[in-house]
From TrEMBL:
Residues 1-20 are annotated as: Disordered. It comes from the Bacteria. Residues 20-79, 108-264 form the DUF3097 domain. This is DUF3097 domain-containing protein. Pfam families: DUF3097_C (PF11296), DUF3097_N (PF22845). It comes from Streptomyces katrae.
Length: 269
């Protein structure tokens, strides 16, 4: 017969139980004993995958007392299977099953080039079709004033424009200021090209390379990364790695959402 062995550890030395918390998607926790903090992106048997604010992902074991939630020690558990979460579009919006595309609005969103348009379609395409917003590309902004004049924007036909490299003192900023008005909104991102709006982590690189002035930026990127100097093929590779808004920099996400709200009027009080 097995002898009973009482636990003689003093009460004050015994580990106190800690809360068990389901590792639900987007829950933000810190890994105990490290400085890694991230949101849950996946949870499988025995492990959890976290993504930090730079887009870096790491896998950790679901060990007892292995995480901190709001500074308190917790044990993460695999979420129980419950009702299916609502399906979402690539932009993170709740998908509307069976929704039909709306008749196109008079308003439009213009972007600088084809790559910009393809990236916007990749992430926001479902949302834009439901809202009836058409995206067109300009092939540069040098003639933006003439384009706006020909479009003749008004309260029922607003125009939104997304500009590359919109930084103070730039040519683009001066052009944007000359056309902005009550029914025209010009916003932009600080990147030399929309390629940079894709997070390096989505491509498996540490960072976008620095390209010397005077050198074609896209060609320089291909050279620095050891890719064939075929910028069209390089872009298709980049685009293929974008599956949702998580793969894009917040600087671009906010600007596109701002344009959609402006054109549809959904951002008004």
């Amino acid at each position: 017969m097995r002898e009973y062995s009482p636990d003689l550890t003093p009460q004050w030395k015994r580990s106190k139980p800690v809360p068990e918390v389901p590792a639900d998607p987007d829950l933000v926790v810190e890994v105990a004993g490290t400085d890694f903090c991230g949101a849950v992106v996946a949870c499988e048997a025995g492990t959890v995958t976290l993504e930090d604010r730079f887009g870096k992902r790491r896998v950790f074991p679901l060990e007892p007392r292995g995480f901190l939630l709001d500074g308190a020690v917790v044990t993460l558990t695999r979420p129980a299977r419950g009702p299916a979460a609502p399906a979402r579009t690539a932009s993170g919006s709740i998908a509307v099953p069976g929704a039909r595309a709306r008749v196109a609005r008079a308003g439009r969103i213009y972007v600088e080039g084809r790559h910009d348009a393809e990236l916007v379609e990749r992430v926001w395409g479902d949302d834009l079709r439901i809202e009836g917003v058409v995206v067109e590309y300009l092939e540069g902004v040098d003639d933006l004033a003439a384009v706006v004049a020909e479009f003749s924007p008004g309260p029922d036909a607003r125009l939104g424009v997304l500009v590359d490299h919109l930084v103070p003192g730039s040519k683009e900023s001066r052009i944007a200021a000359s056309v902005t008005g009550p029914d025209v909104l010009v916003v932009g991102h600080p990147y030399v090209d929309v390629w940079q709006a894709v997070k390096p982590s989505a491509l498996g690189i540490r960072a976008w390379p620095e390209v010397p002035r005077g050198q074609d930026w896209k060609t320089g990127v291909c050279r620095a990364l050891g890719w064939p100097e075929n910028t069209g093929a390089a872009w298709q590779h980049i685009l293929s790695r974008v599956t949702s808004y998580r793969d894009l920099e917040p600087t671009l996400l906010g600007r596109v959402e701002e344009l959609i709200d402006f054109v549809t009027g959904s951002g008004e009080a």
